[in-house]
Automatic annotation (TrEMBL):
Belongs to the extradiol ring-cleavage dioxygenase family. GO terms for molecular function: dioxygenase activity; ferrous iron binding. PANTHER family: GLYOXALASE_BLEOMYCIN RESISTANCE PROTEIN_DIOXYGENASE (PTHR36113:SF1), LYASE, PUTATIVE-RELATED-RELATED (PTHR36113). Residues 6-121, 138-258 form the VOC domain. This is VOC domain-containing protein. Transmembrane segments: none annotated. Its cofactor is Fe(2+). Keywords: Aromatic hydrocarbons catabolism, Dioxygenase, Iron, Metal-binding, Oxidoreductase. It comes from Domibacillus antri.
Length: 299
């Protein structure tokens, strides 16, 4: 069974790389790494060379999702397993790995055609990450909307060995959301999947240190007319305090704090959670219709 270290990086498509790179650097408080050019920019929220890649495109949204595996051995096992299961993993060439500062990587597509990259390790930065004024701790999770939730959850659970932390259900009992962790990473979810009419990126989330960071971020965003579209509130599922806002293309971002962690041995059973607003937000705040609206997925 595949073992992971973490959600490693997200490659986004944006319409104006320079504008978005400045936003993620100055408003989200990530470090810009290397030079920004009109086609690509890298940003980091840890000692990793990058956790966010911005690519020029006229369709803003998701390009691919990168997961770091627990070890090189795990990476080799994962490659063999996906090959055996018929998912046609393809190794990333040397030139691209040099750009990404990654040692070994392969890509494959999930049942929806979304590109995933599994890699063994990334170059570490000499300069420590000292985020300010919003203390971002890490890239936390990504949530997708998919047309076939059941098949997608089955693939991530049974083939990729992601564990289900909780699910949400409509009044008739049908599941419409699954929170998944990349085992044995302890965090409640690094990947969320929602039932949708089409394939779309719902949001990406960064973990911040504490509630003060969410308060500081809220005021900074509002002062510069960045739409804050939901929260601060508290999600029942992971127990985290959240706030959602929009990037310059209208992509949804979330700051999150204080998420439940699971032990590797004897974790609690996944819960069936209901569809009510109180489960989405224990503080029962109102969401804005722009949430998750923009988020084309490159397939
Ligand atoms: C909007 C959904 C269905 C929800 O309940 C989200 C919960 C959480 C969480 O519990 O942390 C998220 O992070 C999320 O998907 O944004
Ligand atoms: Fe989230």
């Amino acid at each position: 069974m595949i073992r992971y270290k973490k959600l490693g990086y997200i490659a986004l498509n944006v319409t104006d790389v320079e504008r978005s790179a400045h936003f993620y650097r100055d408003m989200v408080c990530l470090d810009q790494v290397g030079e920004i050019n009109e086609d690509v920019a890298f940003l980091s929220s840890s000692s990793d060379y990058h956790n966010l890649m911005l690519n020029k495109s006229d369709k803003p949204g998701l390009k691919r999702i990168g997961f770091e595996l627990e070890s090189t051995k795990e990476w080799e096992n994962a490659f063999e397993l996906l090959k055996k299961e018929g998912y046609d993993p393809v190794e990333v060439d040397k030139e691209e790995r040099a750009l990404l500062k990654i040692d070994k990587a392969f890509r494959f597509r999930d049942p929806n055609g979304v590109t995933f990259e599994f890699y063994n390790k990334m170059m570490q930065r000499a300069k420590p990450y000292e985020p300010s004024p919003v203390r971002v701790l890490k890239l936390d999770h990504v949530v997708l909307r998919v047309p076939n939730l059941q098949d997608t959850v089955r693939f991530f659970n049974e083939v990729l060995n992601f564990k289900i932390s909780d699910t949400r259900h409509k009044p008739d009992g049908e599941m419409y959301f699954a929170f998944m962790r990349c085992f044995p990473n302890p965090f409640h979810h690094s990947f969320g999947i929602s039932q949708g009419d089409d394939l779309r990126m719902f949001h990406i989330a960064y973990k911040v240190e504490d509630i003060n960071d969410i308060g500081i971020a809220r005021n900074r965003l509002i002062n510069l007319d960045v739409p804050v579209i939901f929260g601060p509130g508290r999600h029942l599922a992971s127990g985290s305090i959240f706030m959602y806002f929009l990037d310059p293309d209208g992509l949804t971002l979330e700051y999150t704090q204080d998420m439940e962690e699971f032990p590797e041995e004897n974790p609690r059973e996944p819960r069936m959670l209901d569809h009510t607003l109180r489960t989405t937000d224990l503080w029962e705040g109102a969401s804005d219709p722009r949430i998750g609206k923009v988020g084309h997925v490159e397939v």
